[in-house]
User: What shape does this take?
Amino acid sequence: MQLKGTVFKGTSGNYFVRVAGSDVVHIVKLRGNLKKELVYSTSISQPRRVTRARKRRVTDPVSVGDTVIFDTISKQIEQVLPRRSEFARTIPGSHEQHVLVANLDTVFVTFAAGNPNPNFWLLDRFLVACEAAELNAQIIVNKIELAEDIECTMREFAVYERIGYAVHYTSAKTGLGLDILLAQLRGKIGAFAGPSGVGKSSLLNAIEPGLKLKTAEVGLITHKGRHTTTTAELIPLQAELDTWVADTPGLRQVDFWEVDKEDIESCLPEFEKYLGTCQFGNCTHQTEPGCSIRVAARTGEISPRRYDSYMQMLRDV
Ligand SMILES: Nc1nc2c(ncn2[C@@H]2O[C@H](COP(=O)(O)OP(=O)(O)OP(=O)(O)O)[C@@H](O)[C@H]2O)c(=O)[nH]1
Ligand SMILES: [Mg+2]
Ligand SMILES: [Zn+2]
Assistant: This one.
């Protein structure tokens, strides 16, 4: 019999798969010649706007998050279905890419309203990284009960709502906003990104009380392999059927950033309508005359702080 399922873990050629609506785990392998077929047809989902696609994809044909058709008798994967998205990392010292998570639906970019205070520069970098990878990003402002001036905090994050990002205010401590977060995750593959100490693990533990131990274990393993390409794993939520949270070390670290300089401008959504309208076709929107992005930042149509963020990213890349 052939079944369709989600790969949630993969170790040394064994893939762990679950079928929608069931918590039975199938351990399967890749059909021998399927590997070859997949390796030669890896252009399924090339990022639209970014030049990243130039990089060669590594020959690892199945990733965590893939939807596969497998045979229950032979216990082999017969087919890997086209991906909705790819979260990929470049393998250090090479131009090859390794897909950490396939079909990631939403990255929850998490910051705290206080302790630590939100770092908007870093938030912008996370968002640009998501755009470059064509991943849907939503913002979580956790520890909202610690906000010194909640109206001020909400005003600052409203900038992001205006340019199209969903912003959720939560508290893992009081439970505020957790229902909305869960609703956004339902039936999807989500992942939490953001700096240390903002409460990513706490949020997960709050929506999935049985998780505590698991995240601790994974944290231990990933710590060892910090500088190598680490494998991701999907954690099923008990509270919701077919809902997964990706535990990907790559998303928690600063090196989440992997964007080419010339792609940055197209990764700030509010820049889009101005692109191509500058006096010079190759305008980088820094000091060139007749730059419509700079004008928009001066008039406030583009947030001056976001514009500064863009300038900083150009300098740092
Ligand atoms: N007051 C308050 N404290 C919180 C909240 N959420 C988390 N914390 C606390 O913040 C600290 C850090 O939380 P973690 O969940 O470990 O943060 P993290 O984002 O997972 O951090 P890393 O794993 O280092 O990336 C812990 O002491 C939590 O108890 C919240 O909503 N309100
Ligand atoms: Mg954590
Ligand atoms: Zn310009």
User: Anything to note?
Assistant: The mean pLDDT is 86.
